Please model this.
Amino acid sequence: MEKNKKIAEVAVLKDAFSSATTAVVVEFKGLTVVKDTAFRKTIRESQSQYRVSKNTLLRLAVKGTAFESFSDLFQGASAVATTQKDGIALAKAVQGFLKDNPAVNFKAAIMDGKALSATELQALAELPSREVLIAKLLYLMQYPISGLAIVLDGIRKQKEGAA
Model:
């Protein structure tokens, strides 16, 4: 790889790490092209980015970012998925792919400055979506009021029937 291309690649990676809130490092040794393409599509659908690059360039790119602790992990066949938006969507995409493809191994993840283990990433991936959580919250907020309305309506009907 030419020096100019390496410099450009480091700049792209540095920008991705600098603006990201969540990053996941995986080892993809033995992954077929078809499965890698499917993984990339899943990552894009979660509004995230997926990069495979040389370990040396990845080490240079994480310097001075919240993901600097990844430096030691960039050995072997490493790939990085980053997102600026929804870290949970990225966790779901990565975890779903890890479950279906034993050739891909989880190395590390950082979300909002906190390192995540494989079990923590799995727990995040199993969370319901934001919309489902909001719907549940609204139901729980509405339930006491609707219960009161039902009781009051029952009292009204009872009074009307007695009169």
